[in-house]
Every structure is written in C-alpha cells, then in structure tokens.
Description:
Layout: H1 14-41, E1 46-52, E2 58-64, H2 72-82, E3 85-90, H3 93-100, H4 111-114, H5 124-129, H6 154-163
Parallel strand pairs: 2-3
Antiparallel strand pairs: 1-2
Amino acid sequence: LQGELKPILRKLSAGDIERMERLKKDSAQAIRVFNAKIRERNLPMKPISAAYNFDGSHLLFNFSSAERVDFRDLAKELSANLRCRVELRQVGARDEARLLGGGGRCGRTLCCSSWLPVYPEISMHMAKTQDLPLNPSKVSGVCGRLLCCLSYENDQYKQMKASMPRLGQMLD
C-alpha cells in the first residue's frame, strides 16, 4: 500500500454488513431505473454497473457509449429520483470487460477482472514477434482490443528469437 492510510475507527458491525447488503440490492434496482431513463431519453448509452458508497449518500453509475454523451439532465433526474448524489462515468471497452467480468479464450477468468491492476501497453508488433496470426479477430480479447496476454511473454520471445535460427534456415 502506498500513501498515508486513514485510521481505523471500528470493526464492521452486523448492522453495517446488513446495510451493505441492502445497498447492493438497491444498486441493482438503481441500474434498472438508470436503464429505463436512458431508454426514455433515447440516449446511446449502455449501463454497466452501479455502486453506492458506504453510507448510501453517493451513487456511481458506469456506462459505455461509442460517442460522447451529454448526460447532465439525466444525472439531475436520477439524483432526484434516487434521492442521493449521482455520478455518471463513461468507461472504455477494457474497463467495461473488467467491470462485467467473463472468461477469456484461454478458458480462465479475464485477467483484467481478476488480477491485472494496470493495463499493459500492447501492440500488433507483439503478435508478430510471437508468430501469431495478424488477423485482429484472432488476437483480440472479449473487449475487442488486443489481448493483454500478448505482453506477458513478449520479452522471452524477443530473447529466444535473437538466439535461435530463423524459420527455414539451414543448419549444420
């Protein structure tokens, strides 16, 4: 952990845990309200998740959209309807996959939703270095972007290619 941590005031009580469970259920209802308001206004948005803060005074909605959306009026209406402060946050394709979760082509849980804290820099050159097909559909993940795992072994592939003979090269 980095930075200064705030002091611990007390352990969670049974009431705190109950309130957290209730807020989790309320956030599911809030997503339905959010989706209904989006449809009413015919906005090009796709709701992804909703999360209350600990005391229920603040609600964060994550959504995805291909274009920039003016949602100020929607935020005001949601705030009045749900009786708390509402924040709307547009997320990209990788963050959408992280929030929704799922399985990758390897059969395991998506790296971004299970353990990957920061997205690595990935390029098509990495796929070329690893002799993978350069077809974007073959090297793209659930999010539609290049697979994060292309970066995991890229350095080893570079080292091996430097020391091994080229494909088709005649050897003695």
